[in-house]
């Protein structure tokens, strides 16, 4: 017979992904007893179906792309990738989809882990339906943090229930390359998975509703990625959408496009956005709508619920859908919860300890394609729409000695936006092999609001790709 018991903690966290783990780590460090609830694997989407497996698939592809252009290495790396070895590496990086290591860390941090489906049951109360069918009721003295993340959003397409499409989960965990893979979506998941599976032997067709790839970034980013995907053999099509798709008895997928063309594929991946994991977590018991995103203020407090006890951290609040940004929010939320538990006022001024200002002004991101794309802060289009007066400064990275050492045929581009009045960097985009490692310097420049006049004294080593900073400053000065 199912049983019911009640436990009381200072803080309850729903969701044991990287975000929930970081909230719990911060509250425990502040001396608050904390329970964390997880219905799947501790470690969350990033560890098993997103960041870790996708980058494990991409690393061999990107390394080979660089090596094939380096004299002395190129003949040795022209053979196809060892698919079995790449997938085995992906499995290891995903911990073989077992969460023993994560569970061990949670316990070592002094956090109580409850397996099961967590639901809000009113103010500061959560019920957990365990795998055994029991119900555990939890009460929080101070806070409940919803860290349930997001899931792939599928389009409203007739027959999609019987289509058995891939989402990002299937794309990162597949056990063999499909011979023909159709990918729907021009964003990060679409272009990264096109890069990975094309390199692993699939014939990839990438379908973009927009007129270019990576539409939220600087246009040159999508242009350079498109060029390289096509060189690698991918069929990249723009201004087209899927109007019908069905899986045949033989397993093939027949796809009808908005331009009247038809495709046949072995698998179809929809990389068409994200939706919040909030449809069955009891939002209705606190006056919220199940299935909605949970808007918060900069302290990560849910604004529609009175009492300053409910927090939404990570993807579920839709502020910035990146694992690293969710972990940043978790550190802020943990500090806020601890301060309020001690009866202290919180400081939510810009860049203050209890304000997630970076969500609005300095969100870094890397797209692990060939070439890589790294960006933080505003794009030129965003600055214009916001009415920000900026100087747009561009430089061809391939002109650098360090870039030519990295890859003799290096192609890439850098752009920074400099506020005309304040002379500080407010946006940066780098496209080219290896540029992901340039991103932290740009993030520091933006969050630290370092005056351009001071950046002149930050000397880049020669010959490195980081010398692009000097060239950008020279271009700005001379213009």
From TrEMBL:
Domain called Pyridine nucleotide-disulphide oxidoreductase dimerisation: residue spans: 363-469
The keyword Magnesium appears for this protein: no
Gene3D superfamilies for the chain: 3.30.390.30, FAD/NAD(P)-binding domain
Family annotation (SUPFAM superfamilies): FAD/NAD(P)-binding domain, FAD/NAD-linked reductases, dimerisation (C-terminal) domain
Cofactor: FAD
TM segment ranges: none
Coiled coil: none
Domain FAD/NAD(P)-binding as annotated: residue spans: 9-320
Keywords recorded for this protein, A-Z: FAD, Flavoprotein, NAD
Family affiliation: Belongs to the class-I pyridine nucleotide-disulfide oxidoreductase family.
Descriptive protein name: Oxidoreductase
Organism per entry: Streptomyces canarius
Taxonomic lineage: Bacteria, Bacillati, Actinomycetota, Actinomycetes, Kitasatosporales
């Amino acid at each position: 017979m199912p049983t019911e018991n009640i436990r009381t903690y200072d803080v309850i966290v729903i969701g044991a992904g990287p975000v929930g783990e970081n909230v719990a780590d911060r509250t425990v460090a502040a001396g608050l007893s904390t329970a964390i609830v997880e219905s799947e694997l501790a470690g969350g989407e990033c560890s098993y179906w997103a960041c870790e497996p996708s980058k494990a698939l991409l690393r061999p592809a990107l390394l080979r792309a660089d090596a094939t252009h380096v004299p002395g290495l190129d003949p040795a790396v022209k053979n196809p990738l060892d698919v079995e070895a790449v997938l085995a590496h992906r499995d290891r990086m995903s911990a073989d989809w077992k969460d023993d290591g994560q569970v061990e860390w949670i316990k070592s941090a002094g956090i109580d882990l409850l397996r099961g489906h967590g639901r809000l049951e009113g103010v500061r109360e959560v019920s957990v339906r365990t795998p055994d069918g029991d119900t555990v009721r939890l009460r929080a003295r101070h806070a409940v943090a919803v860290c349930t993340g997001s899931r792939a959003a599928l389009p409203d397409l007739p027959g999609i229930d019987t289509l058995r499409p891939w989402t990002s989960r299937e794309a990162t965990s597949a056990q063999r390359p499909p011979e023909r893979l159709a990918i729907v979506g021009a964003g990060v998941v679409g272009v990264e998975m096109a890069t990975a599976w094309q390199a692993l032997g699939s014939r990839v067709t990438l379908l973009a509703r927009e007129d270019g790839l990576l539409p939220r970034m600087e246009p040159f980013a999508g242009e350079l990625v498109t060029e390289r995907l096509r060189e690698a053999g991918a069929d990249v099509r723009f201004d087209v959408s899927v109007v019908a798709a069905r899986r045949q008895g033989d397993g093939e997928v027949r796809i009808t496009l908005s331009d009247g063309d038809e495709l046949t594929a072995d698998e179809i991946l929809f990389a068409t956005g994200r939706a919040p994991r909030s449809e069955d977590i009891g939002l209705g018991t606190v006056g919220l709508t199940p299935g909605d995103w949970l808007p918060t203020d900069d302290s990560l407090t849910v604004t529609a619920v009175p009492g300053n006890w409910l927090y939404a951290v990570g993807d579920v609040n839709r502020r910035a859908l990146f694992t690293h940004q969710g972990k940043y929010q978790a550190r802020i939320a943990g500090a806020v919860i601890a301060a309020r538990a001690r009866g202290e006022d919180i400081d939510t001024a810009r860049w203050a300890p209890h304000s997630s200002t970076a969500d609005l002004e300095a969100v870094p991101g890397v797209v692990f394609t060939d070439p890589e794309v790294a960006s933080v802060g505003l794009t030129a289009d965003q600055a214009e729409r916001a009415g920000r007066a900026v100087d747009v400064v561009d430089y061809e990275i391939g002109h650098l000695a360090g870039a030519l050492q990295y890859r003799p045929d290096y192609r890439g581009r850098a752009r920074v936006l400099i506020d005309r009045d304040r002379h500080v960097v407010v946006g940066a985009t780098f496209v080219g092999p290896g540029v992901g490692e340039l991103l932290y310097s740009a993030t520091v420049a933006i969050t630290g609001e370092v005056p351009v006049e001071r950046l002149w004294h930050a000397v880049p080593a020669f010959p490195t790709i980081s010398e692009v900073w000097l060239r950008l400053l020279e271009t700005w000065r001379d213009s």
